[in-house]
Amino acid sequence: MDYCIEMLGIRKEFPGIVANDNITLQVRKGEVHALLGENGAGKSTLMSVLFGLYQPERGCIKVNGKEVKITGPLDANELGIGMVHQHFKLVHNFTVLQNIILGMETVKGGFLKMDEARKKVVSLSEKYGLSIDPDAYISDISVGMQQRVEILKMLYRDNDILIFDEPTAVLTPQEIDELMTIMKELVKEGKSIIFITHKLNEIKEVADRCSVLRRGRYIGTIDVKTTDKEAMSEMMVGRKVNLNIEKAPSNPTDTVLKLENLKVKSKREGSTTYVVDDVSFEVKKGEIVSIAGIDGNGQSELIQAITGLMKQDGGHVYLNGEDVTRKSIRYKNTHGLGHIPEDRHRFGLVLDYTISENAVLQEYFEKAYQKFGFLRFGKMKEQANKLIEKFDIRCGQGERTVTRSMSGGNQQKIIIGREIERNPDLLIAVQPTRGLDVGAIEFVHKQLVKQRDAGSGVLLVSFELEEVMNLSDRILVMFEGKIVGELDPKTTTQNELGLYMAGSEGGEDLSASK
Predict the structure, then answer these.
(1) For residue 296, what pLDDT is reported?
(2) Where are the domains of the chain?
(3) FRET label pair with 193: which of 172, 176, 331, 367, CA 20 to 30 Å apart?
(4) DSSP 3-state of 58
(5) So what's the pLDDT on residue 170?
(6) Which pLDDT score, from 0 to 100, does residue 514 have?
(7) Residue 341: pLDDT band by 50, 70, 90 thresholds?
(8) Residue pLDDT, tens place only, 167-176
(9) Exposure of 152 by Cβ count < 10 A (0-12 exposed, 13-18 middle, 19+ buried)?
């Protein structure tokens, strides 16, 4: 059998944890080989060993049948291995073109020769349908565009073995479809792809074979076409997973959140358009209200205006009947608001803090966690251990683990645990299951339903149509900054919801009646 990559008996340890325990992975030439596993199963670590970012304690790596020593990413590139990391490795104040050629520059007489590089980048982007603006700055482009830049970096270096580490975790459904098409094209061209994910639908769509890891160990390799999703999820989690959400009918009571004519102007210089345009709605205690829409239609700005992360340009926000429009973020947090933010690194965590410090970010000043201005570390530790236990947070050094060193899914669990344990009257959850495996998604969905049933109001923003349809009691559709429809998930189809989200004419009646 022709293997382009063989990783044999790999062991990698970190303080307090064996991340990879005697793992063997064999990838055939010209296939999409999925690597499936729970959050913290050791997938990214294994790929970091292959890319030379970590050195294994044991085991060997063969590329095209020859044993090799990969001491760093330059060695990996020499061997034709490229990697798109889960959190992109781009220089934000450089242009797209500068990022793609970084480390591979052509220099003549001490000057950079950009013309040939530009031609090669433009021709690659046309060949693979990766349209980009070579002169745009990374700081000004969307996450989906940044990922295209990462893919072009690999293609510019003529890599044949491409590693995609959780490539869809930060993409919209439309961008995911594009990426799947690009991956199929790359394999047709003779490239081999290792695709790390825990989204079973995506594995079914593009992968030929799939290797499963669980808690740092190799479980087995299966043929994707002949294995169903239930069997894959059971291999991955080690138990049967219920992919359907079970919930009783809602029992809404008092209004917990009320928006009146909320407006937010675009932050682009000189722009007079409103990205949130005259939005009014209510969320009651005991119900889950979802805001559905294609990314970029004002959802992020709406949530940031409600929570206080962005100032609004008109209208009012009421929390439990009190006008909190001009109140501080801390005031809102201590008066019943919980928030699972869209960007966990920017707004959810302090990455260089430990779990126990992150666990009390909104409460460290309360009597429970401080006395005469001194932090009560014992109480913080207690709280962190409670979250670790209850929310199955995988970490090497317990509550002392630095959050930056953890997998994205486990970072997300810290935020979800912290916000739910505060038992807010209103829980705003933006993309709460982004980057989570099926077992963790099942758990989070149950927790959101539990919050609803305990009498909290839940405002959910998700780009996963299935999640919106299954979790919601009511669905509000947002298009170009306006609420264009209110739908009942019991009587609406996914197709109908998709049409509203695309701004089809069907939305007129509802927007007129609002």
Answers:
(1) 79
(2) 3-237, 255-346+423-513
(3) 172
(4) strand
(5) 67
(6) 37
(7) very high
(8) 887 676 777 8
(9) buried
What is the residue whose two structure tokens read 């009783």?
A: 248
User: Which tokens go with 469?
Assistant: 């349809």
Please say whether the beta carbons of 139 and 131 come within 8 A. Answer: no
For tokens 């999640």, name the residue.
Answer: 467
Structure tokens at 223: 């043929």
Helix axes 408-421, 438-453, angle to 10 degrees: 10
Q: Residue 420 — very low, low, confident or very high, per pLDDT cuts 50/70/90? A: very high
Q: What percent of the chain has pLDDT over 70?
A: 97
Return the higher-pLDDT residue of 28 and 504.
Answer: 28
> Is residue 507 within 8 Å of residue 496, measured between CB atoms?
no
Residue with tokens 């990314």: 295
Alpha-carbon distances of 500 from 22, 170, 300, 470, 486, rounded to whole Å: 50, 23, 18, 17, 10
How far is CA 14 from its chain centroid?
Answer: 24
Burial of residue 196 (number of CB atoms within 10 Å: 0-12, 13-18, 19+): buried
- The predicted model gives 493-510 an average pLDDT of 69
Please give the Cα distance from 447 to 453 (Å, whole number).
10
Check if the beta carbon of residue 304 is closer than 8 Å to that of residue 459. Answer: no
483 strand-pairing partners = 478
Residues of the chain with pLDDT > 90, as a percent, come to 54
| 3-237 against 255-346+423-513: fold identical | yes
Q: To which CATH superfamily is domain 3-237 assigned?
A: P-loop containing nucleotide triphosphate hydrolases (3.40.50.300)
Q: pTM (2 decimals)?
A: 0.73
Please name the amino acid found at residue 88: F
Structure tokens at 372: 């005469």
